[in-house]
Design goal:
The chain is about 75% helix and about 0% strand. The chain is an all-alpha fold. Among the domains are: about 100-190; about 315-445, no CATH class; about 495-665; about 675-825, no CATH class. It has a two-stranded antiparallel ribbon with strand order 1-2. About 25% of the residues are buried. This is Exocyst complex component SEC10-like. InterPro entries: Sec10-like, Sec10_HB, Sec10_N.
């Protein structure tokens, strides 16, 4: 859309006039492309409306100025002609171009309708053309399908014909081949019958045979025919041998075949010996081609077994005695059976290397001569192991002594297994060389588990003697000291050592590696591993129990010291001071033994963890081949550890007794009667905990530090819960010995709070609840008598019930302090 406008607008009137006088120019290009009437009207309105709005505003201002005051600024009235002009401009059309645009739009619509009709006509023509072409295409496809179907039928008939002709040709070929085979078989049968009649002439007469059986150049053919005749004759004799006497004809035939069988056997034996002689002569001359020819012919006699065994038996290393003696001298040296393991190992290695080189040289000859070299190599290697190697091992292997077991290298098993691998690489056919090697050591391996367990027990005894000697030496070097102090030192010197348990595990691990070496079958290995691991369980369990018992001895000694210095009440002051000093020493011994036992328990737990980890990592997978072995070992491990756990439980109970004895001693010596019944002197009450409470809490904090750092998991929780219950019971029994006034009740509650804050570190809710109950009980001595009925309001029912049960005894002392009136009021 195009518009021509005046470039300049002088004033509002000229501006309005220019807008109304502008023609609206439209072009056909405006209707091309994506034409939309909505867009067209929108553009027109957006382009023209602002100008008309300005014009309308100017007109309104002019009208208001005229209506409000028709007097000009000069004072003269506006002329009537001016007013008429204004009114004419006011009522002029708002869109003067509408008529022009409407005519253009109508023309455009007519043109668009014409264009649509033209396009519809063209579309109809195209549809008709497409329909015609589609019908032609369908007709062509139908004709092509008919032609293709005809071709397929022709090809099917041709294929069927070719198949029929091929089958006929194959049948003809099969018949021809069968006929030729039958003709060949008949010809061979006739020839064999002729030869069989020659062998049927007379027993032991081989002079009238055909030249074939005496011609050295046709030995292979003669051997083949002789084997066929023997097979036929043996079969016939086996089939008719029982019925021979019944029928004359069969008897004659059977007798003739028996003669033929005997003559054929003699001939085959003579031919085989002749070939072996020729084979030996060629072997001495190293004529491999002649040897191979003879071996090939001999393979027809018992699959060549006689030739193979004859060749292996004639090897120099099996018939020369000097070679056997040289092997023994090389292994044992001049010292004989007293040779060191290192020399034996070097000697065995040298012998095995020399044998391997010899077998390798023989293998090259065997590969070139025999048609079945693997079978010959199997016989050769078996002979080497059974004769030459066994002769050496018989002189090396002696029954081991349980007192001084030889190292595994001295037996030669490792070197012999390596030697077997070398022979396997050279070649040994289908021979089970590993099984054969195992059979060489079988008599020694059968006794291995007992020897291994005896060795482990000896190592354990030697280690225990070493530890006792070290402990005794350290005790002597420490000098002569007091009995309790000496006992503590001895106990510390014989503490459980994780490194010792680790050494036990290392011994067992080495034994398991030997089990793996000496046990080729998984079931045998599992049985031996279980026996060796059980030995470890016994050793660790015994060592841990002994260590815990030694730690318990320290607790027992401390308890004996405490009982030794328990004195009566009627004693002198000097005796009492000496007893107090001795009690302090006994308390120190008890604290030391407590810490020592806690360390022993920690090391015991670490040792058990090491054994369990070793079982899971190295033992369990070896026990799986035997049903029930894994479960049985787990049960044995649990049983062994439970025995040690029983000793530890007794010791922990003694630790609690030791702690409670010292707490009772501190309470009896430090708690004064005036702590809970201070005089009513008008001074402010003392809100500090009593000296006895401070001493007990300090002692518990110091001694239980070892329990917090050494015990873990459920062991720690059970120990602290039991100790908390004992402390609660002991404190309750202790406080029932005293009477209280209100200020004493405040100090009692302060002591209870102090004990409760310390015991919260136990993380035992039941203990916290009991000391909360004690705090409620202490309020009985603080509140006024008339407030007792509301004392337990808001507390849990269980706490209220326990409080009413336990505070009966304190009430008795409290009621003695009340007037008869208050007592009557309370009971009412």
């Amino acid at each position: 859309m195009k518009e021509s406008r005046d470039g300049t607008r002088g004033g509002r009137v000229s501006k309005s006039s220019s807008i109304t006088s502008l023609p609206l120019m439209l072009d056909l290009d405006d209707f091309k492309g994506d034409f939309s009437f909505d867009a067209l009207f929108g553009n027109l309105v957006n382009e023209l409306l602002p100008s008309f709005q300005e014009e309308d505003a100017d007109s309104s201002e002019a009208q208001s100025g005229t209506v409000g005051n028709d007097v000009l600024p000069s004072g003269h009235l506006r002329a009537p002609s001016d007013a008429a002009k204004f009114a004419q401009g006011l009522f002029s059309p708002l869109f003067p171009e509408v008529d022009a645009l409407l005519s253009i739009f109508k023309d455009s619509c007519r043109e668009l309708i014409d264009l649509r009709k033209q396009i519809d006509a063209r579309l109809n023509n195209l549809k008709k053309e497409v329909s015609v072409q589609d019908s032609k295409h369908r007709k062509t496809l139908s004709e092509l399908e008919k032609g293709v179907d005809g071709l397929f039928d022709s090809f099917a008939r041709l294929d069927s014909r070719i198949s029929s002709v091929g089958q006929t040709a194959a049948k003809i070929g099969d018949h021809l081949q069968s006929a030729d085979s039958q003709r060949e078989t008949a010809s061979q049968t006739i020839e064999l019958i002729k030869y069989l009649m020659e062998f049927n002439s007379s027993p032991g007469d081989l002079m009238e045979l055909s030249p074939l059986f005496s011609d050295d150049s046709r030995v292979a053919e003669a051997a083949s025919i002789a084997q066929k005749l023997r097979a036929f004759a043996d079969e016939d004799v086996g089939r008719h041998g029982i019925a021979v006497p019944s029928v004359m004809g069969n008897a004659t035939a059977g007798k003739g075949l028996e003669v033929a069988v005997a003559n054929l056997q003699d001939y085959c034996n003579e031919l085989e010996n002749r070939l072996l002689t020729r084979f030996d002569a060629a072997s001495q001359r190293r004529e491999l081609s002649t040897m191979a020819q003879c071996a090939k012919i001999l393979s027809q006699f018992n699959r060549g077994t006689s030739a193979m065994q004859h060749y292996v038996a004639t090897r120099p290393m099996f018939i020369d005695v000097e070679i056997m003696n040289a092997d023994a001298r090389l292994v044992l040296g001049d010292q004989g059976s007293q040779a060191s393991p290192s020399n034996v190992a070097r000697g065995l290695s040298s012998v095995y290397k020399e044998i391997t080189d010899t077998v390798r040289k023989e293998a090259s000859t065997i590969m070139a001569v025999f048609p079945s070299p693997n079978e010959v190599m199997s016989i050769l290697v078996q002979r080497v192991l059974e004769q030459r190697v066994t002769a050496v091992l018989d002189k090396v292997l002696v029954k081991p002594s349980l007192v001084n077991l030889p190292p595994v290298e001295k037996g030669g098993l490792l070197l012999t297994q390596e030697f077997a691998r070398d022979l396997r690489a050279v070649g040994c056919g289908d021979l089970d060389i590993e099984g054969l090697i195992e059979s060489l050591f079988l008599s020694h391996i059968d006794e291995y588990p007992d020897n291994e367990q005896a060795c482990l027990r000896q190592l354990y005894q030697a280690k225990m003697e070493e530890l006792r000697a070290e402990s005794h030496q350290q005790s002597e070097s420490s000098g002569t000291i007091g009995r309790s102090k000496g006992a503590s030192i001895a106990s510390s010197q014989q503490q459980i050592s994780v490194s010792v348990v680790t050494e036990f595990v290392q011994w067992n691990e080495e034994a398991i590696s030997r089990c793996t070496l000496f046990s080729s079958q998984p079931a045998t290995l599992a049985t031996n591993v279980k026996a060796v691991f059980t030995c470890l369980l016994d050793q660790v369990s015994q060592y841990i129990r002994d260590g815990l018992e030694r730690a318990r001895d320290g607790l027992n000694d401390a308890a004996a010291l405490r009982e030794r210095f328990l004195l009566g009440t009627n004693i002198s002051r000097r005796v009492a001071a000496a007893a107090a000093s001795a009690a302090e020493a006994a308390a120190a011994a008890g604290e030391s033994s407590f810490k020592t036992f806690m360390v022993a328990v920690q090391r015991c737990a670490s040792s058990v963890a090491i054994v369990q980890q070793y079982f899971a990592k190295s033992i369990s997978r070896l026990l799986l081949p035997v049903d029930g072995a894994h479960a049985a070992s787990c049960e044995e491990m649990a049983t062994a550890m439970s025995r040690a756990e029983g000793v530890a439980l007794k010791g922990l109970q003694q630790c609690i007794e030791t702690v409670m004895a010292e707490v009772e001693r501190l309470l009896s010596t430090e708690q004064k009667a005036t702590d809970y019944r201070s005089p009513d002197d008008g001074n402010a009450p003392d809100h500090r905990p009593t000296n006895a409470c401070t001493r007990v809490v300090a002692y518990l904090s110091r001694v239980l530090e070892a329990a917090f750092t050494t015990l873990e998991g459920q062991n720690k929780q059970s120990f602290l819960t039991e100790l908390g219950n004992r402390l609660h019971k002991g404190l309750l029994s202790h406080w029932q010995k005293f009477t209280f006034n209100p200020s004493g009740g405040l100090r009692l509650k302060r002591d209870i709070i102090e004990y409760g804050e310390f015991l919260r570190s136990f993380n035992a809710p039941t203990i916290d609840e009991k000391f909360e109950l004690l705090g409620i009980m202490a309020n009985v001595f603080i509140v006024a008598p008339e407030s007792l009925s509301t004392l337990f309001e808001g507390t849990p029912a269980s706490i209220r019930k326990d409080a009413q049960r336990y505070m009966l005894f304190p009430f008795i002392f409290f009621l003695l302090l009340l007037d008869r009136c208050y007592m009557t009021t309370f009971y009412c």
